[in-house]
Design a protein that fits this description.
Layout (H helix, E strand, L loop, with lengths): L4 E15 L6 H6 L5 E15 L3 E5 L6 H8 L7 E6 L7 E2 L10 H12 L6 H11 L3 H4 L8 H13 L5 E5 L7 H16 L3 E5 L3 H7 L2 E6 L2 E7 H9 L3
Parallel strand pairs: 3-7, 3-8, 5-6, 6-7
Antiparallel strand pairs: 1-2, 1-4, 8-9
Bound molecules: adenosine-5'-triphosphate and magnesium ion.
The site of adenosine-5'-triphosphate has 11 residues, from strand 1 and helix 2.
Length: 242
Amino acid sequence: MDTDIIIKVENVHVSFWQNNVGVYSIKDLITLRKSPFKSKTILNNINVEVKRGESLGIVGRNGCGKSTLLRTIAGVIKPDQGKVTVNGSFAPILAIGAGLEVELTGYENISMLLALYGTQRKNTNTIENIKEFSELSDEVLRMPVKQYSSGMVARLAFSISLANDSDILIIDEVLAVGDQGFQAKCMEKIYNIKEQGKTILFVSHFPDDVARICDKAIMLEQGNLIHSGNSNDICNNYRNLF
Ligand SMILES: Nc1ncnc2c1ncn2[C@@H]1O[C@H](COP(=O)(O)OP(=O)(O)OP(=O)(O)O)[C@@H](O)[C@H]1O
Ligand SMILES: [Mg+2]
């Protein structure tokens, strides 16, 4: 693979088994004469290339397959067909609350995730930086995450992910629930990360943000890649959908 290319998605096809024929009990299962599961195509023949230092935006309606594509690129989902090649390290998928353990406190989650990332746990600077960026108080960070509001969860998740020094940052809708101040601060931070030459995969329903952060973008519709190109053009296509 060309060393300039950090992510290459070739002819990727993903399907999921879904149970949508109304089986709620063993009796339903026994009386049903066909399989209760149906295979549904979620991603259909997707081809994407991302160069090192490039930012790719992914837009499309709810349920079109954006998060599934991110998970497939990150290796969480194995495609039924096709191939994904990644030439760099990943920060974990930054989706709202993904990876946080709700029974643990904010502080415990920070320690756990830093250990998972292989970042020095004893590095108090890192913990202080996370705390400072999240603007969560000591009192809140001592509470179990299950008692957080969704905005607080987003603050914690985003701030922890920033501590991970990997080549590729994957952001899935994390800004949607933050308040305006936090959203603006995150956008600034993501922009700085882009300026440092990192590769970013950015899913958002805010086309202005996608156009600002991303050099190029793709638009999905029911699992098909229907537009690909300059992020401004793709965001205009997305705005015209509604
Ligand atoms: N684990 C799963 N099992 C079965 N179907 C799934 C699973 N995860 C997602 N799907 C289906 O895959 C499709 C795409 O879901 P996905 O989460 O990728 O959409 P999305 O584009 O990220 O949507 P949104 O904008 O709402 O976040 C949806 O129809 C969803 O029902
Ligand atoms: Mg999604």
